[in-house]
Write a structure and sequence with these properties.
single chain; alpha+beta; Ribosomal Protein S5, domain 2; Alpha-Beta Plaits; 2 domains; five-stranded antiparallel β-sheet; 10 helices; 13 strands; 32% helix; globular; binds 4-diphosphocytidyl-2-C-methyl-D-erythritol 2-phosphate; binds adenosine-5'-diphosphate; Ribosomal_Su5_D2-typ_SF; 4-diphosphocytidyl-2-C-methyl-D-erythritol kinase; nucleotide-binding; EC 2.7.1.148; isoprene biosynthesis
Length: 321
Amino acid sequence: MLAVVPPPVTVRVPSKVNLHLDVGDVREDGYHELTTVFQALSLTDEVTVAVADEPGVEVHGEGATNVPANAKNLAWRAIDELARHVGRDPVKANIRVIIRKGIPVSGGMAGGSADAAAALVALSALWRLELGRDDLATIAGAIGSDVPFVLHGGTALGTGRGERLVPVLSRHTFHWVLAFDRRGLSTPRVFTELDRLRAEGDPPRVGAVEPVLEALASGEPRQLALLLGNDLQAAAVSLRPGLRRTLRAGVDAGALAGTVSGSGPTCAFLCEDADAALRVAAELSGAGVCRTVRVAHGPVPGARVIGGDDAPRPTPPEVHA
Ligand SMILES: C[C@@](CO)(OP(=O)(O)O)[C@H](O)COP(=O)(O)OP(=O)(O)OC[C@H]1O[C@@H](n2ccc(N)nc2=O)[C@H](O)[C@@H]1O
Ligand SMILES: Nc1ncnc2c1ncn2[C@@H]1O[C@H](COP(=O)(O)OP(=O)(O)O)[C@@H](O)[C@H]1O
């Protein structure tokens, strides 16, 4: 008798920017205690999970050559964890993962984490697993600190190593311009650089998180712009001094404020509205300070099934530098 092969499942998953990133002390497990406000952005990856002749991973799109197409891929690690959780073997089940990247690799925008979150949602749908979002969030947290947030989406306060989330009220759609750098930065290296800077001196620290939450509730981009802050920025700039110029160029181009996204090197610029974002993107792309510029908005939902392989795929406007 022929087995019924389920149709492929495609999931769209957002990137993230940290509006506020307070890095505390190093814990015994090597992670730093964080207080962060995440916002999910419309710059996305898409992950298809299918039953195919050959199990494995393939990667296409933005930075694909720098992403492992093997068991080290975070999406495959997620597939493996979830399969183990339900007592199945993804290789024997001929699971193939196809990743289309829009999120820069090693860019501080949680691209690998996004693919892991998307793979969890896609495999759950393919295998019709009756798992709640809480079960998925627990598996997600074991894969990486950012994975639970991109699964969840929206705007959220993250504590612990970033995996403990509380949704945050955000009334407004915020408009962003993202400047991709020519090369990525390694997250552990940036945390280590911050430890070094702190051992030697007193790099700037972000203030309290409450004013950020109030600015989000008010929905006023000018108020939020004054409060964007990231303790990892000094470390990212120390490792990649050219980012100082990029941050200045975004503000000179008319952004309300700019920040390094997470561990960088992507710079995120908050703009007054959608038109302003397009103007800033056009000017920044001609300034010669980055590889590529994108516009995006947030908050957007977390990892969501978008249907089969022929589902329509809106791509974000792109401006090449
Ligand atoms: C910095 C942040 C801010 O949102 O994002 P990115 O810039 O990487 O996107 C995150 O904390 C990154 O989360 P994620 O990329 O999932 O990191 P993980 O895989 O959990 O950890 C990678 C490494 O980063 C360091 N790390 C990560 C999180 C944390 N709270 N403290 C740490 O010191 C550790 O060296 C760890 O081994
Ligand atoms: N699916 C994936 N997408 C991107 N990077 C991945 C993926 N799987 C593994 N990686 C590896 O993870 C590292 C960076 O992850 P990424 O999430 O893009 O960066 P960041 O932590 O700065 O947001 C790189 O070394 C990359 O090779």
